[in-house]
Amino acid sequence: MAKATLTISSKNYSSWSLRGWLLTKFSGLEFDEIITAPDDASARAEILLLSSSILVPCLRHEGATVWDTLAIAEYLNEIRPDAGLLPDDRILRAHCRSICGEIHSGFTTLRASLPVNLKGRFPNFKIWSRAQADIDRVCTIWRECLAKSGGPFLFGERTMADAMYAPVVTRFMTYDVKLEPRLKAYADMMMATPEMQEWIEAARAEPADIEELEVEY
């Protein structure tokens, strides 16, 4: 049995669970998954953006209990400093933390209008102006990061930023968001990583659907 456990909710719908899972995978820390039941009230509230306090994912490791994705990221960086979750350079670390904080606390219209749904595909999806503004900001962040680093990841090597923006990548695929070539190459590369492929395969195997997130607009 691994020394750590990670409690997550739906792999098909939960952006926060995906972030926490990827962060832990990227760190190299061995962990056992604990998956909450589809009808668990707190997990459902988190997925539907109805919870004021998000307690999933939750990492437990050697007496520590950490349940916020940014806190999980910082904790993993502390215990696994050689994993590269943050860039070595001080200025790049500050930039990485800033864009992680931005996606963690913002983009509420994007979250509500384009919910994560890995089994779903909605070609020519109608994107409203406020959601488009969030999409434009994400694209600016990616564009600036990739221009500075040269890719393939946002900061050249894989960092916590790629885990934090991974759910946005899936949203862009699900809702047919058109991206310029460099950004599409980044999104395609992220979707093709072994970790994302493992998550997607498990998401597609989930038997339960959440009706509220299956609506076509």
From TrEMBL:
Coiled coil: none annotated. One of its GO terms (molecular function) is maleylacetoacetate isomerase activity. InterPro entries: Glutathione-S-Trfase_C_sf, Glutathione_S-Trfase_N, Thioredoxin-like_sf. PROSITE patterns: GST_NTER. Residues 4-84 form the GST N-terminal domain. CDD domains: GST_C_3 (cd03194), GST_N_1 (cd03043). One of its GO terms (biological process) is glutathione metabolic process. Gene3D superfamilies: 1.20.1050.10, Glutaredoxin. PANTHER family: MALEYLACETOACETATE ISOMERASE. This is Glutathione S-transferase family protein.
